Description:
Helix content is 56%, strand content 6%. By secondary structure, it is mainly alpha-helical.
Amino acid sequence: MAYKGVNYDYQLEEKKSLSEQVKDKIYERIHILNWITKYRKKDAIGDAIAGITVGLTLMPQSIAYASLAGLSPQFGLYSAFLGGYLYVIFGTVKEVSIGPTAVMSLLTYEFTHGLRIEYMALLTFLAGCIELLMGLLNLGFLIDFISTPVTSGFTSAYSVIIIASQIKSLLGLRKFKTKGFVDNITKLTQHVHETRLWDTLLGVACIALLLTLRKVKDIPVGSTNGKHLTNRQKKIKKTLWFISISRNAVTVLLSGLIAYWFESYGMNPFVLSGKVEKGLPTFDLPSFSLQEGNSTITFTDMCSELGVSILIIPVVAVLANVAIAKAFSTGASINATQEMITLGLCNMFGSCVHSLPTCGAFTRSAVSNASGVRTPMMSIYSATLIVLALNLLTPCFYYIPRATLAAVLISAVFFMIDWEIIKPAWRANKKDLFLVVVTFVSCLTLDVEVGLLIGIVTNACFLIYMWARPAINITSNKTPCGTEYLMVTPDFGLLYPATEYFSSIVRTAGLNSAVIINCENFKAMDYTTAKIFNVLHQTFIKKQQSIILYKVKPEIAVVFVNAGVTIPCCQTEEDIVEILCKGKVDFIKSEMIPLIEKKLKEHSVLVENVPANSTNEDTEACVPYSHEQTYQPKVVHQE
């Protein structure tokens, strides 16, 4: 027996016992159970190679991101291992590598600089709670309201802010407190005379090296198309690729060796990272209150100090993780709910080891994908590499120059500036380009979270305007008995923001003609709209003109009935002719008349000449009603 996929799946689900449903839910939430039994040797080899490669990228990144957040290097490393272990168990996207990122570090700095480290841990915990709650309540759809132009403007803005914030380390300037992009640029101009030559030379050299190594993988080896390579050429190609993706680790290692060489001869030409605490952090719940002198800072006070960051950071983190999942899904379905739950758990447990707020990063995901990752098990290897570094390599981190870390950050985020969206956005829809510019400028001139909020609100205003000013197509027709009427067709459903506007359009257009409102596109109806239709009906009755609803769906008609609204309704054009001609007329093709030339004041309405019987099929969703019956549909109008 053949079954349709959807119906068959539904029937199977209905027949499942309670134990089977519980098992399915466990397998859905503990995702490792879905693939661990199928794990093979080739999967382990692929994940090990990818994990070690990602670890070599994650290690210097973590140290650099801690610096960006205004914290000691060890806090970046603390943020890079526990989330990885948890993602293996709960995560669904094999390319995702949980750890500190540029945007999370920047936002952490924005909200916690000048505060005690306990605030950062509490922020991570609360962000995790919000992410977990979003997942459990299936609120992932809210992320869909952040459009691509808003995301692009936000990403480009924080990239520019990060670059500007790292210039002081690149130039070897002493630390000075700044607040926002504009203030940072101002302070840089005031302190530029304090530039340290050796740090500047090293920083610029590191940027040059990073950009060069980035292109090493593209060096042609053998034939131009890369096919028919010898074994030796394949090894060379693989080596160049490995050097390219490990460029951050290579750069940090070389600059550290240079700094150590100078230090061994008693010279200190560079500003170094300084001492990094050895070993793993203790596992403790974040502090929910603090003692400061003789006073106690309560949980409420701490939350008040953190402000909107408790909401902004989880939203941005979920946005990043879902975007990565979509980018690397290769057509497979994305379990956004599970990703939010997993991210929430990673941050909640991460806060117990003084982790920064974490999420996935495109750079690390691209590295893992290029390395041949097979399953989320990859994260075990990268996380273990960080654990080994904390126990064995912390004395070496002392010699990493701050200029090198600045170069790593600048080289990474520079390519996150979305230049490519400008031209297509200009050509496709200038409103989208406006959103990019508004979000970008707002993030630079105001705080990044304020800029993101302005972008979202502006985008929402465009949507609301579209709902309030829907497009309306008006065609002029004539029945066989000579009665002229206007067919008014909104392009999509009509809701209360557009009711007054639509009402004025109908009144203006129907000054001397009968009006037929085509409700075929209506998807929903509210009480306010229903009552407006009643007012229109009464207005046309006083003028002794006809107003009729055409192709009303049953669910729309029910709203009118329940709202106490009556208005003539029909389902076919034969019914229209019968009502307007006051009796049964043999239905023939309606006569086309010239376009309406009179401009409707204060409104932009599309007026076309279309035969009255241009669409004469019945709508299956509606039951044909005679002209004696009265129901009411809803209308949409667009300017």
